[in-house]
Amino acid sequence: MIVTERFIMFQISENKRYFEKNGTPFFYLADTCWSAFTNIEEKDWEYYIDYRKAQGFNVLQVNMLQQWDASQTDLDIVPFKVNQDGSFDFNSYNEQYFERAGRMIAKATEKGLTIALVLLWSNYIPDTWASQMTVKQPGQLPKDMILDYVDKIMGLYDQYEPIYVISGDTDFQTSEVIEEYYNVALNRVKKNNPNALTTLHIRGRENDIPSVLKENSNLDFYMYQSGHNSDFQSMSYELAEAFYQKEPKRPLLNSEPCYEMMGYSRKVYGRFSREDVRKAAWQSVLSGAFSGVTYGAHGIWSWHESGLGFNTNIGEAFETPYDWRDALHFKGAWDYAYIKEVIESYDLFDLVPSQELLKNDTSDIRVSKSESYIILYIPSNITIKLEGDYTSKRMMYIDLENKEKMFPDAIYLDDMNITRVSMHRFTRDALLIIKK
Description:
alpha/beta, 21% strand
């Protein structure tokens, strides 16, 4: 399949805080589909991309190589020749695999979706948490083939203008990993195509990246991962605050908040609900990560077929996924699409985290302001206290589950310089929008 028209999806804004398409601010809304190239029938791929496109998604995050914790599949197609012991022969590419991936990328691009392509997932790199797991793995890419591998991928797919995600779910334990794998690959991508967009997908709760990568002008935007551990969901906003302050400034997004209906990591009992994943997204966006956000459904990222296996002991040890046909229709994806709608329709690309305005004693409520609006995410209903007098301003609550609206009363307490905004009447989380 040949794409007849160049589909330029993303550029970086002049102020380095958000994405643009043809000079217009543009919100990165991605779905997580790590296991696409090994697990999805091509007819199902087309159904999937049509559905996500109709919801408003514009990016699909996919692993170029076999996802180490994917669900089992009957397709039996992997990127390299398989040795007798089950490991990959990295010197022998399976060209059928790469041809199939090319057809899938071309189809997504034709539909107006950009592929964010992870080149080097952490289990294929030495001295990372994933490669050190004591489970059967396909092996590690030899260091001396990184350049040829990057050249091959770009030679096949650069015409479709993917985003190149250099690393996948990685930590940074050694200088060899940092400089001789990731930095080498990053520089090669930009040498081959200076206009290609690049980023790093890092391990959950990592609050920085090594200086040699952070200071490399070939890196275009930051991703962080708040992750799936139920004890650390505050990472959604804490990491946003941390990366928002980093220099050099770059667009920033939460590339892996908790996935809808994912079991809590480490087999802790429970699953993340629609409301949980919505909370993670809004807390990220209003805390500095307003250039985009990534959704995940437990059953889509691993592409799970009921009746086939899923190893609940590998990686972070998640409970069994839902069948992909069910997971595709989880309601949380619509909630993420609504975030994009709000950011773009209210032109909130100049947001600045403004937590100092909030006088309620909690960090769960998140506050941000633009030139025209003050926006609050309120996960649990409460009378809102804001520094300053906003009684003459137009205020509106939006119920984030049902999208119903109401208009609150407000009282200004002159002696405290605080405006008290009455509670909304919804039973779920809400957005408060104040027109300045």
